[in-house]
Amino acid sequence: MAGFDKLTEKLARGLARGTSRRSSLAWIGGIATGAAILPVLPVSRAMAAPHSAGHNRPPITSGNPQDPGDRSQCDYWRYCAIDGFLCSCCGGTVNTCPPGTEMSPITWIGTCTNPADGRAYVISYNDCCGVSSCGQCLCNRNEGDRPQVRPQSNNDYNWCLNTQSSVYNCSAAAIVGVAVEK
Amino acid sequence: MAGFDKLTEKLARGLARGTSRRSSLAWIGGIATGAAILPVLPVSRAMAAPHSAGHNRPPITSGNPQDPGDRSQCDYWRYCAIDGFLCSCCGGTVNTCPPGTEMSPITWIGTCTNPADGRAYVISYNDCCGVSSCGQCLCNRNEGDRPQVRPQSNNDYNWCLNTQSSVYNCSAAAIVGVAVEK
Amino acid sequence: MRSATVMFAVALSAITLASGVKAAPPPLPEEPIPSEASLPADYPQGWALIQDFNFNSLVDGRTVVVDTGNPAQPLKGIIRTAQFGNTLFAPAKHEIYTAETFFSRLTQGERTDAITIWDTATLKSKGEIVLPGGKRQQSVTYAGTFQFTNGQKWVLISNFTPAQSVTVVDLDGRKVLGEIDLPGCAHIYPTGDRGFTTLCADGSLTSIQLDDKGAVASSKTVANVQDIDKQPLFGDAAWIGKTAWFVSYHGQLQGIDMAGAVARPLAAKLSVGTAEGGAPEWRPSGWQVIAADAKGLLYVLMSPAGKEGSHKDGGTEVWVIDPATGKRTQRIALSGGATSIAITREAAPRLIAMRLDGPIDIFDAATGKPVHSLGTTIAFNPTVAIPVP
Amino acid sequence: MRSATVMFAVALSAITLASGVKAAPPPLPEEPIPSEASLPADYPQGWALIQDFNFNSLVDGRTVVVDTGNPAQPLKGIIRTAQFGNTLFAPAKHEIYTAETFFSRLTQGERTDAITIWDTATLKSKGEIVLPGGKRQQSVTYAGTFQFTNGQKWVLISNFTPAQSVTVVDLDGRKVLGEIDLPGCAHIYPTGDRGFTTLCADGSLTSIQLDDKGAVASSKTVANVQDIDKQPLFGDAAWIGKTAWFVSYHGQLQGIDMAGAVARPLAAKLSVGTAEGGAPEWRPSGWQVIAADAKGLLYVLMSPAGKEGSHKDGGTEVWVIDPATGKRTQRIALSGGATSIAITREAAPRLIAMRLDGPIDIFDAATGKPVHSLGTTIAFNPTVAIPVP
User: Fold this and answer.
1) Is D239 among the domain residues?
2) What are the chain C neighbours of D3 within 8 Å (beta carbons)?
3) What is the pLDDT of residues C14-25, one digit of tens each?
4) Which site among C60, C104, C138 would you substitute to test the A interface, given the most A Cβ atoms closer than 10 Å to its Cβ?
5) With CB atoms counted within 10 Å of each terminal CB, which end of chain C scores lower, N or C?
């Protein structure tokens, strides 16, 4: 199994580095093009409510007009397939794990449209591991999410794999490329 | 230390069994007589809120007019010095631990006035142990509560002592006698 | 320093106990302690096991024994189901099984995966079976990652590292029998006498039968069971007899007969149907979105806001379909919404409508009328329910 | 069965990556992963360590590193502080210490008590010291159950079985030195160069000095320090230099000079004072109810609903008293209420007002004006705060 682990890790990293083969299937096209940003969903909002009642967190922004939105909110464009606590609210940043945690090298992938430039970006969602549930800014969005038989497209797994501990803390969202529909 | 443990356990059990010596100090008189039932306190109420919003639990009553009140509510008369989750909401009863837990043999004591008969009862608060936090019906009332230097009168300790596990689940409140001011 | 008795001497001297003070009525009696409750070894059919994911402390997941008919005291007891745990229920053996993961220092240190065996009456552990390799699949709760086979004498556990495999465990013998590699396939559906079916990434399924040592005796793949791009099936099925009924993201219903050694997809093309008022359209949505009752009706949790990515948001109605006729027989409105549903096996079955953020409501499954709300008196984050069969 | 590469081949073939599609602007750059944040080894003075009791999962307590000046991102990191844990902070050593309890199966099995040593920059464990006997006192958080002595080279830990004792631990040597029986006494207040004071059930205190092996070198009792029946002192003190300032349930202030080998209660009879509007009366109320600033002012959390049993309910104002003059200099209104308070050591000190159910508000300590609310962005159940000294 160790050999297979190495293989899949290499594939996952390869994908994250943006070196994968140029081909596409219909399903990703459907997501990558013309997909508007989903509103925050009723149940996700309800789950998040106990931790934000009576207080408006000031927005966490990039300062770059080409990357607009509040990184503490579920409706930020990069979070189109995220599931978990936003690392921006947990001591990390949109793409950095909080101190004390370890970033999982194996990830799931989303394809999210940036409303500023209209591009569909490939987003690597990396779980941060080894510290207990952050408990802040819980989000669940599922654009392009598919059943667990397609792991790379599924956010229900605990992706704290090949880390020292499988305990889940939060999820980061890093840009790893631009997706093109052929 | 073992001998001392046995001694204190014996004392605690003796107290719980209602066989202690007949004497009193001023402080207990102040609590035992004329103390009205405290309202549920603002912070306790706030802590309980996330788990009861939008739903009114039907009352849990004794059926005995001499033991009035709702055992799922912090203002039930026996809970005048409780701190924790009410076992009535956790699979136990007012004086019984939930299945799967073990009742701590060592307890703290409160003296609570029963509004139906005007008597001050000695209440033994026994923690239930070995299962994680129940999470239901959190209450904190402190009539007669004193600093930790007087353990029997302090509800800040985790009283899951001399049980297989010190993990706290909920707190029960059993009548162990009637207190008299001399 | 003070003598050993100081601290309690103060407390003891502070309280006077007597058996009666005023004339009438006599005081309330002393109550015996210690006192610990137990449950009936056989749970009534209105009860269910509900998985509490406990998102805010995932290391501390639980399974809650729930009396769905008792809004005053629905929570009957809590069983530990640590860290993305799973639960199985064997009423005939009066046992509950949890598949769990522990670390020696809560969040760090040595990892131990284990199955714990719990007594239904005492809710205390009767023992555990340690699982090798630290590879137990951790996911938001799916029934398909922990399943019985071989007449409930064995259990099968999904592994994910992300290499995929299944560990075979002999419950009665309290030992691990072996491991079956299943690259590219996920979830376990009991199939035949001593086997299981798994769904694979190319849309096929594979059915495996095991020998009496737990090794693969036969393996057979059936192609084109689902189109994962266009009509992916939700992972958890509803069982009517030995047929597992799946629903797709778009509402197609697919029955798969698991009675024989090889799973047999049913030919009937069924659907939950359509309705007005969707924006853009009605689709199944939630976590445990499909359930069945004892009479063989299917219940599907539906959202009017169906579109790409809406499939886990939760729904506002339950649509009832009779797979024998393919007709929709009822629409049940859920006042509070739901992310998961289940149906009790009572003579008058009830619908358990759960929300991931806590609230649980109970409906009459036949009439669709609300019975009562249990509010958030049960679990922090209920994911799936196992009604007493 | 399928080949090992099936599952990822599907995913890989589904996505096409390119470096630029449209004319302008160029796409956002790829971002490096993995990427993990770290903190400055020396924390700014607006930061604090806040204990999260996590009542709903006590096994999973935490300590949170907080930037009180940053309402957008106040939570800088989380440290495990399991099961009624305690925290100490040694900025000069760039270390944080937690006293914790673990069970091998989360809630059951073998118990381990340990001190964990955390690096301030990485928030990762640098090691642990296992404590013998499984007797570490578990309480709602009191600073007095885990304290430094001997110039932060040693720590003292309270035990409660309910037999009371203190374990002496050499942090630098990573070893347990010994245990001191303290029947009838609770809490630890560092005293002298290498000793501590403890409060006892008859209202006295006992001061103990240790030898260089951690054994008792001297012990001295001072009687009548408090009247536990009528004027009990809250357990946690505010420190001004080497004087610990306690407040009683009724608002009396008692300074105790801990500079020498034996604690010396100050003679001055001070009080928080009174005010109109109490029903029945203003009293101190909350958990960490007293704090001090760098200038030597005391801050006491006050409730207008003071009566027997109100002492932990939390307050609506903070009263500022100058112990040098005995005068009350200010009343600060807390819009959201609080159960615990602390004062930062910034040039312009700030008041941290915490509520056990989550919300944390920040005030200007000098003017009493609200600065900002941090809402519930930090902890489930904040009990005590340790501002950066």
Assistant:
1) yes
2) 183-184
3) 344 444 444 679
4) C138
5) C
Quick check: A18 pLDDT over 80? no
Of D33, D75, D123, the CB nearest to A89: D75
**Structure tokens, C60:** 């501390």
Interface residues of D toward C, Cβ cutoff 8 Å, are 1-7, 10, 54, 56-57, 59-60, 80, 82, 100, 102, 104-108, 112, 114, 116, 125, 128, 163-164, 181-185, 200-202, 204, 206, 219, 221, 228, 380
Contact with chain B for residue C2, Cβ under 8 A: no
Catalytic status, residue A127: yes
Is A161 within 8 Å of A14 (Cβ atoms)?
Answer: no
Which three-class secondary structure string do you get for D322-338?
A: ECCCCEEEEEEEEEEEE
- Mark whether D150 and D217 lie in a shared domain: yes
Token pair of A181, please? Answer: 């529909």
How far is residue D367's CA from residue D373's CA, in Å, rounded to a whole number? 16
Token pair of D334 as six digits: 């807390």
**List of chain C residues whose C-beta atoms are within 8 Å of the C-beta of residue A112:** none
Is D278 in the same domain as D261?
Answer: no
Q: How far is CA B139 from CA B92, C357, D85, D142, in A?
A: 16, 22, 21, 19
In a shared domain, residues D259 and D307: no
CB of D8 within 8 Å of any CB in chain A? yes
Q: Where are the domains of chain A?
A: 2-40, 49-178
| Mean pLDDT within C144-169 | 98
Nearest CA in chain A to D375: A55
Cβ pair A166:C83 closer than 8 A: yes
Range of the domain at C294: 274-389
CB pairs under 8 A between A and C: 143
On average, the pLDDT of chain A sits at 77
Look at residue D29 and tell me if it is in a domain: no
Which comes out higher in pLDDT, residue D20 or A96?
A96
Q: With beta carbons under 8 A apart, name residues in chain C contacting D200.
A: 2, 6
Q: Based on the residue annotation, tell me whether A77 is a catalytic residue of this protein.
A: no
Please tell me if residue A81 touches chain C, with a CB cutoff of 8 Å: yes
Are residues C202 and C134 both part of a single domain? yes
In chain A, residues with a C-beta closer than 8 Å to the C-beta of C138 are 157-158, 160, 166
What is the average pLDDT across C229-243?
97
* Shared-domain flag, residues D253 and D188: yes
In tens, the pLDDT along A100-132 reads 999 999 999 999 999 999 999 999 999 999 999
| Angle in degrees, 0-180, between the axes of helices C6-13 and B2-17, rounded to the nearest 10 | 10
Report pLDDT digits (tens) over D268-309.
999 999 999 999 999 999 999 999 999 999 999 999 999 999
CATH: 2.60.30.10, 2.60.40.10, 3.40.50.80, 1.10.1760.20. Which one for B49-178? 2.60.30.10
C33·B92 Cβ contact <8 A: no
Cross-strand bridge partners of residue C64: C50, C78
**C159 and C226 assigned to the same domain:** yes
Residue that is last in its domain, among C271, C290, C321: C271
Q: Are residues C279 and C253 in the same domain?
A: no
Q: Does D315 fall in a domain?
A: yes
User: Cβ of B178 under 8 Å from any chain C Cβ?
Assistant: yes
CATH number reported for the structural domain that contains residue D263 in this entry: 2.130.10.10
E-only strand ranges, D185-326: 185-190, 195-200, 205-210, 216-222, 238-240, 243-247, 252-257, 264-265, 270-271, 281-284, 290-292, 298-306, 315-322
pLDDT band at residue A56 using 50, 70 and 90 as cut-offs: confident
Is C152 domain-assigned? yes
Q: What is the ipTM score, two decimals? A: 0.91
CA–CA separation, D49 and D342 (whole Å): 11
Q: Over the stretch C171-216, which tens digit does the pLDDT of each residue have?
A: 999 999 999 999 999 999 999 999 999 999 999 999 999 999 999 9
Residues 298-357 of C with CB under 8 A from B: 336
pLDDT at B180: 76
Residues C313 and C224 in one domain: no
Q: What are phi and psi of B43, to 5 degrees?
A: -75, -40
Confidence of residue B55 (pLDDT cuts 50, 70, 90): low
User: Does the structure show a pLDDT above 80 at B16?
Assistant: no
Contact B140/D at CB under 8 A: yes
In this prediction, residues D136-164 reach a mean pLDDT of 98
Total CB pairs under 8 A between chain A and D: 215
The single residue listed with the structure tokens 């099995």 is D109
Res C98 pLDDT > 60: yes
For residue C84, the model assigns a pLDDT of 98
